[in-house]
Write a structure and sequence with these properties.
The chain has three domains: 274 residues, Aldolase class I (TIM Barrel, Alpha-Beta Barrel), CATH 3.20.20; 63 residues; 113 residues, Alpha-isopropylmalate synthase LeuA, regulatory domain (Double Stranded RNA Binding Domain, 2-Layer Sandwich). α7 links the parallel β5 and β6. The longest helix has 20 residues. It is globular, with a radius of gyration of 24 Å. Strands 1-2-3-4-5-6-7-8 form an eight-stranded parallel barrel, surrounded by seven helices. By secondary structure, it is an alpha/beta fold. The protein is built from 17 helices and 14 strands. α3 crosses α4 and α16 packs parallel to α17.
């Protein structure tokens, strides 16, 4: 290894790189789909946060994925942009093509190395897999200076074979070696020992950054990631809110705040601006339709709430009694700027900036302001949560192909329950009137009449954004079609209007999902 590289590694000894895969592994969550505009919005937030690497997608999966990776590569200037590829020439070529506009491109290629995966999924002998590692990494290195290689199901791989694969990948040109716990199987002590073993036994390991990618099937993804850092790993692959396949991935906000809070035993830094964590969490939640559970660490609604009397007493005397980090450290600010029906556009714009929405365009601010004034006419007390809900609902849906226009519902115990609905479909205004077994059933029947489709309603969930009988409703709808599931969200002071917005949002996501036809084995 050159003296320059050795010096760089020494300087980075206490620096942990954050590799965010929200746009790739996160989007593989059942029900989660993002269109191009949404992916670009997420990428902008991640870059502003200071994320080191943004994995933008899997270019070979579909034209939509290719365009998304290409779009993110064109937009992002500071972060590295990665594209995923299996150990196949076509995959790697497609990734390289999508990454051409990137200022700092990375090809991330992978192949399974566990006996179970090699026998039943790949149907390849170990020697053939080893050759595929050399060939795929070498080809990727010919096309891109920055190559990452992953051993899928690494934690269930034979140690001797894993060492041979890692050594081969580095010799072929991989600058980053990623060890995924693909099925969330390992535990912290075992994972620490595995990473330590690689440092001890792989002769050229000092020529690469060791990375880990942990899934959360046993609830240990963050703990395993931190254990790996203790053993020498210096890149963590993670997602905002921990979204991802099955039980999800290591949550970026938890990893970053654990390192920041416990520097006494983990003296490592990341480049993440933690004050943007809350905003990033809300953006992802609004776009994907995945609500954050109230007791979720760091970003849950109850993360800084104190109800027990003894806790409240302690907090009044000294916040450190029951808070190990401050709300401000993750961008959670309790405002003194009260908003109401008489608030003007300038005050509203100042409030948006205070809440982390300073990046919105004038058109987006105007759209949100119109929604705010309508809400203020119906609700006396406007909370920060109200504004964030309506902004997220209004802004992230601006490019939907199907848009809600208006709704009139007749309901009650005597019936019949009917819904008159107006939607804009591909720019054309369409109306329908339908009846049903209750107002929600009538509403959804009207949507199906305007835009015929065959789906199964898997989830209909309503919760209040704030307290009070005049609270905004936030509705989540989950639709399933031919094995594809999508989540939609909508917010409004009228629960049925919120329901319509949520269902329409889910339909738009289904249109995106239909365009994706990802090949098998796309998870590292």
């Amino acid at each position: 290894m050159s003296a320059v590289n050795n010096q760089a590694n020494m300087q980075d000894a206490d620096r942990v790189k954050i590799f965010d895969t929200t746009l790739r592994d996160g989007e593989q969550s059942p029900g989660c789909s993002m269109n191009l505009e949404e992916k670009l919005q997420v990428a902008a937030v991640l870059e502003e946060m200071g994320v080191d690497i943004i994995e933008a997608g899997f270019p070979i999966a579909s034209n939509g994925d290719f365009e998304a990776v290409q779009g993110v590569a064109r937009q992002v200037k500071d972060s590295i942009v990665a594209g995923l590829a299996r150990a196949a020439i076509k995959d790697i070529d497609r990734a390289a093509e999508a990454l051409k506009p990137a200022a700092r491109p990375r090809i991330h290629t992978f192949i399974a190395t566990s006996p179970l995966h090699m026998k039943y999924k790949l149907q390849m002998e170990p020697d053939a897999v080893l050759q595929a590692v050399a060939d795929s990494v070498g080809h990727a290195r010919d096309l891109c200076d920055d190559v990452e290689w992953s051993c899928e199901d690494g934690t269930r791989s034979d140690h001797d074979f894993l060492c041979r694969c890692v050594e081969t990948a580095i010799k072929a040109g991989a600058g980053t070696i990623n060890v995924p716990d693909t099925v969330g199987y390992t535990v912290p002590a075992e994972f620490h020992a595995l990473i330590a073993m690689l440092f001890e036994r792989v002769p050229n390991i000092d020529q690469a950054t060791v990375s880990v990618h942990c899934h959360n099937d046993l609830g240990l993804a963050v703990a395993n990631s931190l254990a790996a850092i203790g053993a020498g790993a210096r890149q963590i692959e993670c997602t905002i809110n921990g979204i991802g396949e099955r039980a999800g991935n290591a949550a970026m906000e938890e990893v970053v705040m654990a390192l920041r809070t416990r520097r006494d035993i983990m003296p490592y830094d990341t480049g993440v601006k933690t004050e943007l964590i809350t905003r990033a969490s809300r953006v992802i939640s609004a776009i994907t339709g995945f609500s954050v559970q109230p007791n979720k660490a760091i970003v849950g609604a109850n993360a800084f709430a104190h109800e027990a009397g003894i806790h409240q007493d302690g907090m009044l005397k000294h916040s450190g009694t029951y808070e190990i980090m401050t709300p401000e450290s993750i961008g959670l600010i309790r405002s003194t700027l009260v908003m109401g029906k008489h608030s003007g556009r300038h005050a509203f714009k100042a409030k948006l900036a205070e809440l982390g929405y300073a990046h919105l365009s004038d058109n987006a601010i105007q759209d949100a302001f119109v929604r705010f004034k309508d809400l203020a006419d119906h609700k006396k007390d406007i909370y920060d949560e109200d504004i964030m809900a309506l902004v997220d609902d209004a802004v992230v849906r601006r490019n939907d192909r199907i848009r809600f226009v208006s709704l009139q519902v007749v309901c009650g115990s005597r019936g019949p329950q009917t819904a008159e609905l107006e939607l804009e479909v591909e720019g054309e205004l369409m109306t329908a009137k339908a009846s049903g077994n209750g107002p929600v059933d009538a509403l959804f029947a009207a949507i199906r009449e305007i835009y015929p489709h065959q789906t199964k309603l898997q989830l209909y969930q309503v919760h209040a954004v704030t307290e009070g009988t005049d609270a905004q409703a936030e509705v989540t709808v989950r639709l399933e079609e031919n094995g594809r599931t999508v989540n939609g969200q909508g917010a409004d002071h009228d629960t049925l209007v919120a329901s319509a917005r949520a269902y329409v949002n889910a339909l738009n996501k289904l249109l995106v999902k239909r365009e994706k036809s990802a090949p098998a084995a796309m998870t590292a």
